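Pipeline run #58 for the internal structure catalog. This entry was flagged by the ingest filter as a single-chain record with no existing model, so it goes straight to prediction. Upstream metadata was stripped on purpose; only the residue string is passed forward. Reviewer on rotation: M.T. Logging verbosity set to normal.
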Amino acid sequence: MIYLVEDFFSIQGEGPYMGTPSIFLRFGGCNLRCPGFGETWQKGKRILGCDTVRAVYTRLFKEDWQEVEDADRLIEIIQNYVVNLSYRPDIVLTGGEPMLYAENPIFYRAVEWMVENHYRVTVETNATLAPSFEAYPAYRSVTFAMAVKLSNSGEPKERRIVPEAIAHLAKEGKESFFKFTLNSELIERDAYEQISEICDGYENPIYCMPLGESIPQLHEHAKYVVPFCLKHGYHYSDRLHVRLWNREEKR
């Protein structure tokens, strides 16, 4: 069984495909909590974590998730979005942490179908989990947006950095790239040292984004991220969905 939190059709807001029409499938469950990213109130409870906590905290939100019992259900969702389109949009698998389901037969069959039908598929992942590319070869045709968490996530280093998983995703995935979320404090402290340690030995592109789920927050941290990228030769990525809708998620 796998769990789908939501699906929607929008534009990609981050990374190298920013602005590209994309079908998003958000899956439930995550192996990290990232309390350093702030707090929110959900269902009367104070929760520390990322901006998509409703796709992370299983005990609190599972009753709101959709149970997916067959890959055909995911395929049907995609087909319903594209039926009246004259082009093929991207597909983004996000979460939570979608790689929790990487070797699940329902999830993998859906990925196989996407690849076989020539969709560009991006998996947004914290890069702590990697499938067997020998046993599940369709993943070689998938781009992994490796959002490796830094110390500002509040997660201990041994949980947020898994070198073996990063190596597989970086080397086996198609056009995989690193994506880091930065705030001014981390940049002034040791963001460059942390990123250098994670990315050492890889030629995959590095994208840096400002932390923020509102326009004022985004603007404040962007003033630090842009000079940081210029100094170190990284790609700057805005968060276009925040600019447009003044919140983290397109609704």
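catalog note: The CA atoms of residues 71 and 106 lie 5 Å apart.
catalog note: The radius of gyration is 17 Å.
status: ready for reviewer M.T.
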